[in-house]
Amino acid sequence: MSTAITRSDADSFGAWELPEPLRDLQATVASFMANEVRPAEEELDPDAWELPANVLEPLQKRAKQAGLWCIESPAEYGGAGLNLLSQVIVAEQASQCRMGAYVPAAGAFGWDPPNVIYDGTEEQITRWAVPTVESGCHTFVAISEPSGGADPARAIRTRARRDGTDWVINGSKTWISKAAESEWGIVFARTGDEPGGSAISCFIVEADAPGLTRSKIPVIRSWSPCELTFEDVRVPQENLLGEVGRGFALAQRWLVNNRVTYAAAVIGVAQAAINLAIKHAKNRESFGGRLADKQAIQWMIADSEIDLRAARLLTYQAAWKADLGKDFKVDASIAKVHATEAAGRVVDRAVQILGGLGVAKEMPTERWYREMRIKRIGEGPSEVHRMVIARDIIKGSR
After folding, report:
1. Is 366 a catalytic residue?
2. What fold, for 249-395?
3. Partners of 285 in the β-ladder
4. Which residues pair with residue 67 across a beta bridge?
5. Contact residues for 341 (Cβ-Cβ < 8 A; gap 6+)
6. % of the chain with per-residue pLDDT over 70
7. CA dihedral defined by 118, 121, 126, 128, rounded to 10 degrees?
8. What is the residue extent of each domain of the chain?
9. Which distant-in-sequence residues (6+ apart) come within 8 Å of 247 by Cβ?
10. Are 194 and 149 in contact (CB under 8 A)?
11. What are the tens digits of pLDDT across the range 67-89?
12. What would the CATH number be for the domain defined by 17-110?
């Protein structure tokens, strides 16, 4: 019996597209960005990473009314409770503003606490997560250390030892985003002598805890990550998240989920950059005609569209598998590698099409060009993810 799909069968299926609720969500966020967020950025310094409070607070109020507040957090704790595919849709649109690569929607949608907090006790959720969702304040996750970040099972050397009813933490963390602005964070530390991830535990640590020092690390973007130094930082037993020695599983869950929305965000930045370049090419006259009519420019536009479509579908695939409850670790790595590398190429082409204007401070492409370079390192460098993918293929577990 033939299993070929006929033309009439294909017509009945229709074109692949997002379900209507997700298209509506996409349109809602795109409209909010166009009408609320991007106009609010216009008066700021080109490298600004936050809106003034008198501008941000009304935006956040309107975002709450639109159901776009703390989109990752469960609805029962005050968030929007979106699944991962919905988060991807929001992330792609929310990154399409000048500061969007690292401050989605310029902070209008608030800041979710780390998703692993919801693996804690009801008391921990009530004390830490709920007030954070209500205020939309910053939190941090501290995994990476000077000894390494991409291999946390072996690299984590920060130690926590039991002292009566407390834990005492000593060591250092580095490249920790949002730590300077946060009120609390999640810290992973070694609590035993066993090698690998079996002796890593997870703690909730207040940012102003005695003995904790936060130092900014200047980088090529305006919003600096931090180095954290722990000198006999005391943490009460009730701040242990999960079980002793089970923290590595929590770290993995946070990292894998985050890679998918990370991929979506760079796609949004790249889309905004090439849209800007196309608009310029259609209006710029050179050598007796529009830039857009030159084959060299057309090929850059075509290659960018190919890059973005592939990155977008790979990212949707990873999120879709996650929402089905399937193992999506390799899918997340594939999406992260392809999206970050493709976005870098697309932004680079946008700069080339814009010419000198592309690297002028007045244009967001100058900032995006710098910020996209970090994305191939953050959330695990491309080389490590390629190793994850290759190992999976060689094992034959596909």
Report:
1. no
2. Butyryl-CoA Dehydrogenase, subunit A; domain 3 (1.20.140)
3. 290
4. none
5. 376, 382
6. 95
7. -70
8. 17-110, 139-241, 249-395
9. 188, 189, 191, 200, 201, 202, 241
10. no
11. 999 999 999 999 999 999 999 99
12. 1.10.540.10
The Cα–Cα gap between 79 and 252 comes to 23
Q: Which of 41, 92, 145, 379 is catalytic?
A: 379
Q: Answer yes or no: are the C-beta atoms of 328 and 318 closer than 8 Å.
A: yes
pTM, whole model, 2 decimals?
0.92
Whether 271 and 308 have beta carbons less than 8 Å apart is answered as: yes
Number of residues written out for the chain: 398
| pLDDT bucket at 149, cuts 50 / 70 / 90 | low
Q: How far apart, in whole angstroms, are the C-alpha atoms of residue 307 and residue 345?
A: 8
Q: What is the 3-state secondary structure (H, E, C) of 89-145?
A: HHHHHHCCCCCCCCCHHHHCCCCCCCHHHHHCCHHHHHHHHHHHHHHCCCEEEECCE
What's the burial of 28, exposed, middle or buried (CB within 10 Å: 0-12/13-18/19+)?
middle
- pLDDT tops 70 at residue 1: no
Q: How far apart are CA 177 and CA 175, in angstroms?
A: 6
Round to whole Å and give the CA distance between 52 and 76: 30
The CATH code that applies to domain 139-241 is 2.40.110.10
β-strand pairing of 200-206 with 184-190:
antiparallel
CA distance 86 to 102: 19
Q: How far apart are CA 212 and CA 218, in angstroms?
A: 19
Q: Mean pLDDT in the chain?
A: 93
What are the residues whose beta carbons fall under 8 Å from the beta carbon of 352, sequence distance 6 or more?
300, 358
Angstrom distance (rounded) from CA 85 to CA 260:
9
